[in-house]
Automatic annotation (TrEMBL):
Keywords, ordered alphabetically: Aminoacyl-tRNA synthetase, ATP-binding, Ligase, Nucleotide-binding, Protein biosynthesis
Ranges where the Methionyl/Valyl/Leucyl/Isoleucyl-tRNA synthetase anticodon-binding domain occurs: 3-121
GO BP terms: valyl-tRNA aminoacylation
Limits of the Valyl-tRNA synthetase tRNA-binding arm domain: 171-218
Protein name, entry field: valine--tRNA ligase
Taxonomic source organism: Mesomycoplasma hyorhinis (Mycoplasma hyorhinis)
Annotated catalysed reactions: tRNA(Val) + L-valine + ATP = L-valyl-tRNA(Val) + AMP + diphosphate
């Protein structure tokens, strides 16, 4: 994907978007996930290979630093390297699902200030993931499988149940009740505005459509 993105924007001489795409890859994919996953599998060869490619694509933007790092890490001259392409793997569905669940569990932990010393106990409804995927989730999210139906998280592809202590359940119940009250008040507010003839007659069309869109979302 990164190869195609760079080629696409290079043809349009849109260097700012090339830089943005590389930045997102380095900080979101490479740093956040590739290195973390590599810690579990400890495959230094592939990690160095990807790092070499990262330094090469970064070179036009930070030439002196990438030259220095390339020489120090690989004991080679960067400018003597052939163009290296990032390999596109067709079957990434498995790891994408792992990342999806781990991200959601981490967000929940952070949102509710749950210590990393405490394992999250979760259960995936209609789980189809294999044991390797579940082991990765457990290690990356500091979690463990525990069948329950206490509190639910929904992602694009999964429904995840979290086993919570009684105090956490009470907190979650209060949060849900507060959110329901807020949404009910917003529905009343938006409905009142949209039923006001003066508003409909005088407000710009864009504002009316925005209010209708808000009401549909509620």
């Amino acid at each position: 994907v990164l190869n195609k993105t760079i080629s696409k924007y290079m043809n349009k001489y849109n260097f700012s978007l090339i830089s943005k795409s590389i930045n997102e890859f380095v900080f979101e994919d490479f740093s956040s996930w590739y290195i973390e996953l590599n810690k579990l599998h400890k495959n230094g060869y592939h990690l160095r290979k990807v790092l070499k490619k990262v330094l090469i694509v970064l070179h036009p933007f930070i030439p002196f630093l990438t030259d220095y790092l390339f020489k120090e890490i690989f004991n080679e001259e960067l400018l003597e390297q052939k163009r290296l392409m990032f390999r596109n793997y067709k079957n990434t569905e498995k790891i994408d699902k792992v990342i999806e669940i781990v991200s959601e569990l981490r967000k929940y932990r952070e949102k509710h200030n749950i210590s990393k010393k405490e394992k999250l106990q979760y259960w995936i409804k209609n789980n189809s993931l294999d044991s390797d995927s579940l082991n990765l989730i457990n290690k990356l999210a500091i979690a463990e499988i525990f069948e329950n139906n206490v509190s639910i998280l929904k992602t694009n592809n999964f429904e995840i149940f979290l086993n919570l202590s009684e105090s956490k359940q009470n907190e979650e119940q209060l949060r849900i009740e507060k959110e329901i009250k807020y949404l009910e008040s917003e529905v009343q507010r938006s409905s009142a505005i949209l039923s006001n003839p003066n508003f409909l007659a005088k407000a710009p069309k864009e504002k009316i459509e925005l209010e209708k869109s808000k009401l549909e979302d509620y």
